[in-house]
């Protein structure tokens, strides 16, 4: 048996998230069906972490064990011919047997994208949360700063979470503004969050809270108070899933 | 009756082109249904030009006559609530009765996009033609130069065209290369063509021919010979429609 690690990109629009669920169409199901059809083996795929329904991945990392003799450099092409156009595998290597794509991940980056302006961008409608009025990006940036470092992120975690500890470290939190499209009269705000791990809905609740900061409904300083409150009710709403992309996963 | 001019963006993936066709789903049909539902009038929409099945528009221009009293600044919002998410109207103004969105257009720009690299970009799979091997962009750029100016574009026109004259002027022909994505190991080539008018399939045949130049199957100089031949058979294949976007239409 070999342990194979692969990089997967997906447009999550059509899927009920990464992880297998009863009677749902998930990324994991589609990957495992493609692996079954390629190898004849019933293979269980492990990922760096689940993504919610509608969330995308530029770079999800998976691993699985197989007895198949297919050379590692052939896995991508072979699988891509079996996968639908919205899921793509773009890298494969043999890793040590003790490699586990979730446990070995030391750092993850998520990106949340908000489109502001008179109109959404038709070509990115599945990838950007559309907000019709302008947002105060300077205030949002200031709010984002409070999240950097080790904190108890209970306020930014779904009450459905079952994790024992809500303490996580955010290494980097930054915002990029993409220029106005002269035709669509719009601009995109990308929020990048890098940390050692993220709680259930954490990035989406942070995005939902920062949107309120950008709207002037909350001050940037309130982000610190929300952290201190350790209470989900103190934060803003969970922003819609389609603006979120798992951007990068780093390993030792 | 007022003559109203609007800007329309659409993702052409799900449509059989702009223009109404029997038993087909077209952009024009969807726009006219939305206008009927908004105004109660059977309105015929005129565009700056038809686009083929699967072709997109960043900025298509349409006009139509209506007796409706809806203030012009309300048309966009009212129509967008009735239109599907892949069609968006982003500008509306009242124009002179003799304005005709096709006849008054003095300049059009199309963009054709090719993605080169080990893998396609999952998020732009509907918007980019994927070419797995690298292309010689310098040769393509040199080939593109020959198209600038007034020429008989018969070689770059579908034999199904019914136009009397195939003489058109290309004002600008340029290429932009978008940087490599480190994860997807890919880059995009955007070909922009600006002219006073384009023949049936003209941009797609130019793109198909330039791809062959980039592959080394033809020299850049052959583009001049193809023009001189005035024979569709001398040019390359018609590149796939989903890489093409109507980028801009200019009026006097």
Instruction: Calculate the terminal CA-CA distance of chain A, rounded to whole Å.
Output: 23 Å
| Alpha plus pi helix count of chain A | 5
Query: What percentage of amino acids of chain A are in beta strands?
Result: 25-35%
Determine the CATH superfamily of the largest domain in chain A.
Answer: Pseudouridine synthase I, catalytic domain, C-terminal subdomain
CATH architecture of the largest domain in chain A: 2-Layer Sandwich
- N-to-C order of helices and strands of chain A: EHEEHEEEHEEEHHE
Top CATH class of the largest domain in chain A: Alpha Beta
Rg of chain A, Cα atoms, Å: 19 Å
| Oligomeric state of the chains present here | homodimer
Mean pLDDT of chain A: 95
Tell me, briefly, the overall form of chain A: globular
CATH fold node name of the largest domain in chain A: Alpha-Beta Plaits
How many beta-strand segments of chain A?
10
Number of domains of chain A: 2
The low-confidence parts of chain A are none
Describe this entry's structure for a reader.
Chains A, B: It comes from Paenibacillus foliorum. The structure is a homodimer of 252-residue chains. Chain A folds into two domains: 94 residues, 2-Layer Sandwich (Alpha-Beta Plaits), CATH 3.30.70; 146 residues, Pseudouridine synthase I, catalytic domain, C-terminal subdomain (Alpha-Beta Plaits, 2-Layer Sandwich). The longest helix of chain A is centred in the first third of the chain and has 13 residues. The first copy, chain A, is 20% helix and 33% strand. In chain A, strands 1, 2, 3, 4, 5, 6, 7, 8, 9 and 10 form a ten-stranded mixed beta sheet that branches. The first copy, chain A, is built from five helices and ten strands. Chain A is α+β, with helices and mostly antiparallel strands. Chain A is globular. Chains A and B meet through strand 1, strand 3 and strand 4 of A and strand 1, strand 3 and strand 4 of B.
